[in-house]
Design brief:
Chain lengths: ~375, ~260
């Protein structure tokens, strides 16, 4: 994309935001955005640079599920501060115990203690040192600041740790989560692991900006979640093979102009995506899994119920009759009342419904 | 609301009360809390929430004394534990961060008359200040610099100093020795024997492991800091009127950005 195209794209996105500055999305929003790429509503907000959390509050004011609890945020920050303080003693110990670092590998840099304006530059300088194979490069970088291109602009993500042994050629990514390593909701682990994957994509993007082609090969595909042991702020290191970083990268690199054209058609002159009523008009692609992560999900679910969309019956129903959009239409086809399949796919799904209907009737009446 | 009767009135009349740190009164002060004797060991909430205030000058002198006691750049988060252990003084970390800002204003007003000052450590590769790591102007430049190995080396040196202090205090001041033990226990997770009882202090194991690791990294840490100190000295010599500011507070962000981009 050349400068003129970038400027044009920026102007179009600024119009969608009503002239406001783009909100930083961060790893959490970027990974969420990639979970349901077919959802134009979520994609519209993400590419425009509007935090979905801000809009969710106006879409469903009574629903506070999308907001993270203040206590959770505080507990998370306190845990992170506790295990990275005192020369990063606790986290170094945990990484050594897990075999991620060796006993004498203790070079630590905390990028967030540097002046704000230098954090990104310093991260790049440290990455350059590792790329050169400098034996004095740090083993542990806390709060590195990495830029990842998305929708014609740079989004910054700050993985909690970048970790590498002396002989390793590049850093692995890790994230600190205050979740207990005992009986934590798998959805939370999934979200955390996907944020690590976003960090891997961002690291690869930085390395590519430093002149390394296809740098995702260079980034270790094993990422780490630093969870909390039961009974106190003791870190426990969990490694995950995160091959989905490749899919995330493809998603983040996707050209946004097609989606932008679709969105602009829906907007009348002067309308912006800051207005929740306008956002409501943008079609969503609601799935029951959306409730796990997306702050817009309650409103999308309500809309799906109003429209009688098959998705409210669950993923199984949607997979069984993918070409039939609504429950009402499915019922009419099933009973062969006032509806006839028009497309080949619909005919196949209607036949499946008939078979199921007959089986149900036989089970009921013999 | 918890109030320390008697002491509060004195504090209210003190115009410098807002420049405060939180201190615990001595156990035999006769102070009562809601009618009951003040507890010998206050809860964390009480000690952080604020019971008795001390003047900013007092906090400053205590921090300087502590820095001269440990003689390594000290993160504010660690200093909180050290002040609690050595002086039985409970200070919120943000108060120490604010103290650094006050110190810069004090330097602007008093100049060298008020020396030594509490100043931030400087980051070896860029010679910029590290916001939450404290040092003293009484130290050599090399001692005030923080390289990649320094956080760990400083931490190990600090633990060894605490182990020594604990040994001395066990003879003279058992209460202080106990507080030192608490601090050592909290700061030594990576040095303990994982097979031993984690609730018991392992001074011998911690001391041995700390010494072994420190021996392995001290030389390269010292070399990196010495090299950076030479670089800083050259910059300071060429800086003219800005020399002192650069020496104590490091290079400006703008200058470093220009260096990195150039």
């Amino acid at each position: 994309m050349n400068d003129r195209e970038t400027a044009e794209l920026s102007a179009r996105l600024a119009r969608l935001r009503g002239g406001h500055k783009p909100s930083p999305l961060g790893a959490r929003n970027l990974e969420q955005s990639a979970r349901n790429p077919a959802c134009l509503r979520r994609r519209a907000l993400d590419i425009a640079g509007i935090a979905p959390m801000d809009i969710a509050g106006t879409l469903v004011p009574s629903d506070s599920r999308h907001r993270q609890s203040v206590l959770t945020v505080r507990a998370g920050n306190a845990y992170e501060a506790e295990i990275t303080r005192a020369g990063a003693d606790r986290i170094l110990g945990a990484l050594r115990d897990a075999g991620v670092l060796g006993p004498q590998e203790s070079r630590v840099v905390s990028v967030d203690h540097l002046p704000r304006a230098l954090r990104h530059e310093e991260t790049r300088r440290l990455l350059r040192a590792k790329l050169r194979g400098d034996p004095q490069a740090p083993n542990l970088i806390l709060q590195a600041r990495l830029a990842v291109p998305f929708a014609g602009r740079q989004e910054f993500v700050c993985p909690d740790i970048l970790v590498a042994r002396d002989e390793e050629s590049m850093y692995a990514i890790g994230d600190i989560k205050a979740y207990s390593d005992y009986k934590t909701d798998p959805a939370s682990i999934r979200g955390g692991a996907r944020q690590v994957a976003v960090g891997m994509v961002a690291l690869a993007a930085e390395l590519e900006a430093l002149g390394t082609p296809d740098a995702l090969h260079l980034v270790p595909s094993r990422g780490y979640l630093i969870l909390q042991r039961r009974g106190g702020p003791q870190p426990s290191v969990h490694g995950y093979q995160l091959d989905e970083a490749r899919f995330l990268r493809e998603y983040l690199r996707r050209d946004v102009s097609g989606a932008l054209d679709e969105i602009e058609v829906l907007l009348r002159p002067g309308e912006t995506l800051i207005d929740s009523e306008v956002v409501r008009r943008v079609p969503n692609h609601y799935r029951t899994e959306c409730r796990e992560y997306c702050p817009l999900a309650p409103d999308c679910a309500r809309q799906a119920v109003e429209d009688g969309h098959v998705t409210i019956l669950g993923t199984g129903a949607l997979a069984a009759i993918p070409s039939i959009p609504t429950i009402g239409h499915a019922a009419r086809l099933m009973a062969e009342r006032d509806a006839h399949p028009t497309m080949l796919d619909e005919e196949r799904d209607a036949a499946r419904l008939h078979r199921a209907y007959r089986a149900w009737q036989e089970a009921l009446h013999g | 609301m918890v109030r320390v009767r008697g002491q509060m009135d004195r504090i209210k009349s003190d115009s410098s009360a807002r420049e405060t740190a939180v201190a615990r009164p001595p156990a035999d002060s006769g102070v009562t809390v809601d009618g009951a004797p003040y507890r010998a060991r206050p809860s964390r909430r009480l000690s952080i929430g604020g019971s008795i205030m001390t003047r900013s000058d007092d906090l400053r002198s205590r921090v300087l004394t502590m820095l001269h006691f440990i003689e390594v750049p000290c993160p504010t988060a660690t200093l909180v534990h050290l002040l609690a252990a050595r002086d039985d003084l409970y200070v919120p970390e943000l108060r120490l961060v604010a103290l650094m800002r006050e110190e810069r204003r004090r330097y602007a007003t008093d100049g060298d008359a008020g020396a030594p000052y509490i100043v931030p450590a400087l980051y070896v590769p860029l010679l910029v200040p590290l916001g939450r790591t404290l040092t003293s102007t009484a130290w050599t430049d090399e001692r005030r610099l923080v390289g990649y190995d320094t956080p760990r080396a400083g931490h190990l040196a600090l633990l060894l100093a605490l182990l020594d202090a604990r040994r001395d205090a066990r003879r003279t001041d058992p209460a202080r020795a106990e507080r030192y033990e608490t601090a050592i226990h909290r700061l030594s997770h990576s040095l303990r024997d994982p097979m031993a009882d984690p609730t018991r202090l392992q001074p011998v194991v911690i001391g041995r492991n700390a010494q072994r690791e420190l021996r392995a990294i001290a030389t390269r840490d010292h070399a990196a800091r010495q090299q950076a100190a030479d670089r800083l000295a050259a910059i300071v010599r060429a800086a003219g009127a800005d020399a002192r500011r650069i020496r104590w507070w490091g290079l400006s962000t703008t200058r470093v950005r220009m260096m990195l981009e150039g």
